[in-house]
Amino acid sequence: MTALQVGVVHVDRRGVIGDANEWFAAWAGTRRGELVGRSIDQLLVHSDEDLLPREVGDGPWIMLDAATHERAVLVTRNSDGDGDVLVVAEASERWRALSDLRQRYALADRTRTRLQLVMEASVAFSTATSEEVLAGVLADTTARAYRAEESAVYLHRPDGSSDRAAGTDPFEGRLDVEALIALVSAPRRVVKIVEPGEAEVLIPGFGAAMRAAGVRAFIAAPLHHEEIDFGAFASWFHHDRTFDDEAAPLAEALANQAAQALATLRLQARLAHAATHDEVTGLPNRRLLEAGMSRMMGASVCAAIFIDLDGFKGVNDRFGHQAGDRMLREAGSRLLRAVRAHDIVARYGGDEFVIACDVADPEVAMDIARRILDVLHGDPDDPADALPFRASIGVAIAPIGSMLLADQLIRRADLAMYRAKSAGGDRIMLAESWEIEAAG
């Protein structure tokens, strides 16, 4: 065979080489004689990225060096009766250019898909009505964006703890949530791990937990906005995974959007709380009290217990408002200890508190009032509870089906409280029928 700028290879029906020219032998890195008897499949394999399926016609196909997959040739098949003649031309540079172009198109397509996800997530984040709903949107969006088997969102809670707010993770308690959040929150960076050994270096035991859970890779990002760390999200992969250059910016974009929405939700929650709660004691204010009483009244026997701290003005005048505020907070704390979990304890104004509770009869309401007075008196043997409070307490009852409004029932309890204060204070008075008629 003459030396051509292409390879010519004769193969039989089984693909065994019968002859080849010098060009192909040089390309294969061997001598012509050593090619004879070898299978062409040992030297060339079809490329998965070829546009033309290997089963279609006589080619041409892009085929790769079977040993390295780093070189490519263009192969055309011609039948000669006993087998095939393969014409082989160097195509490595063309193959790399096509592969690069294909990757660019794939990246562009992923970019369009991811931008669409970011826009959809932005709308969903802005309309989320709670942190749990928002976390669910983030977990779903990140799972779709990265084609992850599992995604989870972990949030810091007001009590200082952290937990999974949405999504799933494969570790079943084998991974410390706080350690995972700290991994991305402290440096405020996206972390990409493509094999368990990398994770083991970052957090001892993390790699072992990944292997036990069948996790091969993950990507995680902090949820951070204006110096506030809300937590983190993580997407977990049970297959080998690499990350392109857009993976980290996408994670940052989604995390930043979610963190901004979390900040808005928490601001709204604080404003709503401030509108319905007392600033000094943290207890419900008059607005929230009356709304709760309105729901309670008519459906059950409702009691209003009106409490006025005796001598509070003297404390304010002598020791100042800060001392007065401390006294109010302590009184509010004791009232909460004295009542049942479903009773409403509110600061009504000044040194006045009102408790709304559903009761079986007036005697139950009086029992609650007596317990309140005892708790306010404090325990002289307990240093943390030694400060005694005196209080005048009035109790008013609205029967089932009453047409009274909440503020009317509170007014009746207020009148009974004034009777208690006029009688010397530090006692309880139940609104009598004549007081009810007068107040009505």
Automatic annotation (TrEMBL):
Enzyme class, UniProt record, top EC level: transferase
Ranges where the GGDEF domain occurs: 300-433
InterPro entries: Biofilm_reg_signaling, GAF, GAF-like_dom_sf, GGDEF_dom, Nucleotide_cyclase, PAS-like_dom_sf, Rev_trsase/Diguanyl_cyclase
EC number: 2.7.7.65
Keyword terms: Nucleotidyltransferase, Transferase
Stored Gene3D superfamilies: 3.30.450.40, 3.30.70.270
GO molecular function annotations of the record: diguanylate cyclase activity
Name of the molecule in the record: Diguanylate cyclase
Organism: Microbacterium insulae
